[in-house]
Amino acid sequence: MTAKLIDGKATAARLNALLATKVAEFKSQTGVSPHLAAVLVGDDPASAVYVRNKQRSCASAGMLSSLHQLGSATTQSELLDLIAALNADASVHGILVQLPLPKQIDETTVLDAVTPLKDVDCFHPENVGLMVQGRPRFLPCTPAGCQYLITESGFETAGKHAVVIGRSEIVGKPMALMLVQKGRGADATVTIAHSRTKNLAEISRQADLLIAAVGRPNTVTADMVKPGACVIDVGTNRVDGKLVGDVDFAAVLEIAGAITPVPGGVGPMTIAMLMENTLTAARLQTES
Ligand SMILES: NC(=O)C1=CN([C@@H]2O[C@H](COP(=O)(O)OP(=O)(O)OC[C@H]3O[C@@H](n4cnc5c(N)ncnc54)[C@H](OP(=O)(O)O)[C@@H]3O)[C@@H](O)[C@H]2O)C=CC1
Ligand SMILES: Nc1nc(=O)c2c([nH]1)NC[C@@H]1CN(c3ccc(C(=O)N[C@@H](CCC(=O)O)C(=O)O)cc3)C=[N+]21
Ligand SMILES: [Mg+2]
């Protein structure tokens, strides 16, 4: 059996086209153009690529974007000053601080400084708390992109065993907490695995839905996958200049029921969800 491919690139393109019509309608009703401000500190080439992709997506959705680039020697207080200025700028609706940040800067302090209504990554504790309580203001972009692909592929999550490998604040933890909520694309029985987990293969083999968010190639091998499982590969790893996920794709393709490729899976969906959140942020900050 060969797994069905879940095409994140095509799904994201459809969502982006739909978003463009929603943005046009919002602009004609309010006269306001949704605006995402991206903050890029340092000279990490991968970060520069992602930020450029986000700006391109803003343009194609009819939204404004601005890039605030700071040098790798930027101090935390300089960065906090920039965030304060963006928080106070009524023409800016969403603020994205691209991670990772240079070593001299404490990520939590900086992310907490983004005003919650402009927190389109859904990293602020107020927004994480609202999501966990089942009354989200924003959904975290990568988990929301995964959930959308799972639902759209026709996989019924209710009552199923979902195993999330990874417990980061950006992917694994919010993904698990979304899958355990009540409602569509959720109601799963969730296990969270991480680097201290014992017998990972035994646990992952029990997964009807397996989500890998580790950052290490070939973490999920064919023997770790239940036949017919839905496998979502969040990993984005560069190996010999090539982009690969966390899943041994060729081998797992023969076992799984459905699988996301890398590239062309979760990555484009993350950006589509960021665009959705930017429109949501503009709505929340605009009188109607
Ligand atoms: N496509 C997209 O849109 C996005 C892709 N990514 C990619 O997803 C991957 C994960 O990102 P992120 O969550 O930020 O990474 P982190 O490094 O923050 O987290 C990785 C997680 O994996 C766990 N882990 C590490 N090694 C193992 C192992 N051998 N077995 C089981 N668990 C393990 C860690 O455990 P512990 O907590 O114990 O350290 C940690 O919880 C990366 O490749 C990243 O590039 C990230 C964001 C968006
Ligand atoms: N504040 C913040 N928010 C983030 O959401 C965030 C971040 N920082 N730092 C880095 C990670 C990583 N991330 C990706 C987004 C898109 C692709 C993506 O579109 N990938 C394409 C390929 C792109 C390529 O070729 O390099 C794909 O998988 O098809 C990948 C990874 C968001 N992140
Ligand atoms: Mg740091």
TrEMBL record:
On whether Metal-binding is a keyword of this UniProt record, the answer is no
InterPro entries, per the entry: Aminoacid_DH-like_N_sf (IPR046346), NAD(P)-bd_dom_sf (IPR036291), THF_DH/CycHdrlase (IPR000672), THF_DH/CycHdrlase_cat_dom (IPR020630), THF_DH/CycHdrlase_CS (IPR020867), THF_DH/CycHdrlase_NAD-bd_dom (IPR020631)
Q: What is its EC number?
A: 1.5.1.5, 3.5.4.9
Ranges for domain Tetrahydrofolate dehydrogenase/cyclohydrolase catalytic = 6-121
Which keywords are on file for this protein? Answer: Amino-acid biosynthesis, Histidine biosynthesis, Hydrolase, Methionine biosynthesis, Multifunctional enzyme, NADP, One-carbon metabolism, Oxidoreductase, Purine biosynthesis
* Tetrahydrofolate dehydrogenase/cyclohydrolase NAD(P)-binding domain segment(s): 140-284
- Annotated GO biological process: L-histidine biosynthetic process; methionine biosynthetic process; purine nucleotide biosynthetic process; tetrahydrofolate interconversion
What Gene3D superfamilies does the database record attribute to this sequence? Leucine Dehydrogenase, chain A, domain 1, NAD(P)-binding Rossmann-like Domain
Binding of NADP(+) occurs at 166-168, 236
Please give the catalytic activity noted in the UniProt record.
(6R)-5,10-methylene-5,6,7,8-tetrahydrofolate + NADP(+) = (6R)-5,10-methenyltetrahydrofolate + NADPH; (6R)-5,10-methenyltetrahydrofolate + H2O = (6R)-10-formyltetrahydrofolate + H(+)
This entry's Gene Ontology molecular function terms read: methenyltetrahydrofolate cyclohydrolase activity; methylenetetrahydrofolate dehydrogenase (NADP+) activity
| A Pfam family reported for this protein in Swiss-Prot or TrEMBL | THF_DHG_CYH_C
Family in the record: Belongs to the tetrahydrofolate dehydrogenase/cyclohydrolase family.
Full protein name: Bifunctional protein FolD
